[in-house]
Amino acid sequence: MHHARRKVILLDSEEQVMRQVSRVFGGAFIVIHVQNPRTVIGLLETDDAIVGVITEQVLRCGAGVDLLETVRSFRPAVRRVMLTGYSDMAAIVVGIHSGAIQSLLHKPVGDTELLTAICPEVAERAAARRRASA
Predict the structure, then answer these.
(1) For the stretch 60-93, what's the b/e string if a residue is b when 16 or more beta carbons lie within 10 angstroms of its beta carbon?
(2) What is the pLDDT of residues 35-93, one digit of tens each?
(3) Within a domain: residue 2?
(4) What is the model's pTM?
(5) Which CATH number belongs to the domain containing residue 83 in this structure?
(6) Which of 7, 59, 105, 133 has the fewest CB atoms within 10 Å, counting from its CB?
(7) Which of 78, 92, 79 is nearest to 48 (CA)?
C-alpha cells in the first residue's frame, strides 16, 4: 500500500521560522506554509496526510490557541504545537490545560525541540542512537 508523504502545516509570519521549519522537517515531511487559520481547517478537511500543525499565538485574524482548539476537536490525532514569542501567557495556559496545545515552544526554538514537538518518536530514536554511540 502506498502511503502519502506526511505533512506539517505552519502558520507563522516570521521568515526565519519558516526557513527553520522547512529545514528541520523537509526531509521527512512536506511543510505547508499558510497565512490564514481558515486555510488550515480546509486542508485538514481534505488531506489525511497532515500529522501536525504549528502556529504562533498572535495571528492576523484570530488567535493560535483558538485554531489549535478547532484542530483538536476536528482531528484529535494531529499534533498541535504553539510556537510563540508572545509574552501574555494567560490564553496559552488555558489552551494547554484544555488539551488544545500539546507542545509549547518559545522563540527562538532549537531544531531538536521543534522535531520533538511534532514527532517525539523520531527524536527519541535519535537520542537513543546518540547515547549508544557515546
Answers:
(1) eebbbbbbbbbbbeebeebbbbbbbebeeeebbe
(2) 999 999 999 999 999 999 999 998 888 899 999 999 999 999 999 999 998 777 888 99
(3) no
(4) 0.87
(5) 3.40.50.2300
(6) 133
(7) 78
